[in-house]
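Let us begin with a simple case.
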Amino acid sequence: MRYLILFILAIVFFVGTQVKAQKDSISTSLRNNESLANDSSTNQNTPKIDIIGNALVKSISEDASLIQVERNDSAWTLAVKTSDLKTSLKSFAKNDKVDITFSQSKGGKELKTILVKTQQNSVSTRIWTLIGVALGLLFFSWLLIRQSLSKLILGLDNRYSNSKFQIVIWFFLLIVAYIATNILRSRVSIDFIGGVNIPSNLLMLSGLSALTFATAKGITESKVEEAKKEGVVDPKPLPTTGPKFPSDLFTDDAGNIDMADFQMIIITLLAVVTYIVQVFGFLASIEFHKNITLPDVDTTILATFGLGQGAYLAKKFVSKVGS
């Protein structure tokens, strides 16, 4: 397990060294809006442009012709007249935090621009958040089981299990990404804790991982029972040596390199590294929609992952117990 921890930390540090430090800055759009407001004040023929920052969307009409926002104890109802703005409002929902500009005239208040509030997170902030969450999750897991965490991926034959390894590492990565995202969102307001959704491909990949684990366990137990019925006393004897990480993940019980195991682990690690990089980039700029979605894995990774899992299960099904 210590190799797994070192591997995860090494990947996070590697990504950090490849990305330039970013500074938290005021949104360019707001600067432009302020400039627009200043220019408009010098022209009496131009409607006055007002700015509302850090507002919450309270409602949007079905035809997107009206939007209501509030900040503190003040509320504004704004007309939406342009088709572009009406289209853009489809990506907004109640309780999104936004910066808006609007004009005031005899005809009422009209929305001019709307942008979701974003928070820029520096490289160091992202690195330490991910590391802190990862270490915290490992410590919490240890408190629950009060045993070596390596036993989470140890099979009944006292060897490290491929199917357990890949489900543990995916579950760990998914939970770390979820918690880190919520922590960074909560820096603006605790109201933004939660509302982090899992995209379809990532959900399918996680489901494949769980399905592989359950199927592999079922195949092994079925073969062991069949062997016992045939009179085999110990169809899956314990190895004479202790578990070895990571060699157990690439070899069979006889110590020979297993191509199906090797392929599945390599594809799993490729998917894990790719997703770590995606999450690291995603956390660089967090949008304060009430509901957001974690970055998704691409279809190539999903398909390749599925092939690797399928090959592993096929090998498991046709091979004898202990191979």
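The second case is a distinct protein. As before, the sequence precedes its structure tokens.
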Amino acid sequence: MRMFMRKGPSHSYRKLGSNLPQSALSRLECLNRLRNINGVLGADWSNRLPANRSCHVVLFHFRFSKEACANDEQPYILHSVAEFLHNRISERFNDTDTFQIETDCVVTVLYGGIREKIASFMHTLQPLLKRQNIRCPVTIAVGTQSVRYHDLGAAYQEVRQMAMQANLTEDIQFIDKLQAAPPMLLNPKHEQALGSFMQSGNAEGAIQLMSQIIDLFVKNGASVQVYRHLADLIASKVWINLEPLHLKAESVDKAYSIIRQVRECATVQDYLDTFTELFECVAAFINETQERQDPIAALIMDILNTRYSQDLSLAYLAQLLNMSPAYLSVYIKEKTGANFSDHLNEIRIRKAKELLIVTGMSIHDIGVHVGYENITSFNRMFKKQIGMPPGEFRKQQISHIHKVK
């Protein structure tokens, strides 16, 4: 068994076996093509590869829990199962390569062969894997068609996407069809409640709501991809709520670290634990900021944050606080660094950004919901603050969130 390593974050390549008489560098080039990583080799080895041969790609995706990663069980489990897979597959098929790739995947490339027979054999591995007692969910994804060497990168991305269709709560799963993932959006009730909990620094409320959402996911058999979409939606919502706090670099790094952990979750318990940590972190930042604020300024900002959809005016606030409009205007500017209208528009557009990302509401309805009576005013203010119209912003953000990484 040879081992190939490429320096860089999170990329470990382990060659487990081969029945083809090719050099180590040619094998590494095969892997290079699988991952579409350019520049691994300093020379062009493509002439040493059987470029005209067709091949099939099979992915074994392992979802390691945070506990398994913390106990350093991940590399041992992956190596053991990868050896087991290589032995079983090479017994059945003559021309194969099996690679340990990334920190959670084993890939097998089968040269020639009929897809139906390959898929049928891979299906028989399910009960065998269960008997291995690997304490880790595994998804077997068989590519939809044979490819040439130069298409290995696209084939690898396809089986990665197929693996995301797996039910998060099932152990060993087999997938041989690529299905379009439905958009994952929060319903307006959940979105509004979660926003209120975040803005008020109510970690307990946010945690309870997230537990309810995940319970629904479990009952509906939600896929890995749906959970990851949820993680990205919540991440977007968190950043939008933290943006006006102007946090220090170390606080931003802490939030970013937890958000990165959310995307790496592999089990329902992982998601519950990490969302709990995230909401507690956000609440701490918000509560700390509120404690430092002038009490009257804090009250004004609370009114703006909770009643932004209403027809608010400086005169209304002045009457509410028993102040003259002129004095209140100067007071807000002095205590917060911005005037009343700037705060109101910033809050409204920030809320609009949330709704554009996490709900399916129309742009017109979002504009009305956040306090703009006509679509023209909403579009103009949104473009002024964000640099693009709301429709373009939604398209850009949703495309980014639903991209399979």
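Confidence is low (pLDDT under 50) at residues 1-25, 37-48. The chain has two domains: 3-175, 188-401.
Keep these points in mind for the review questions at the end of the chapter.
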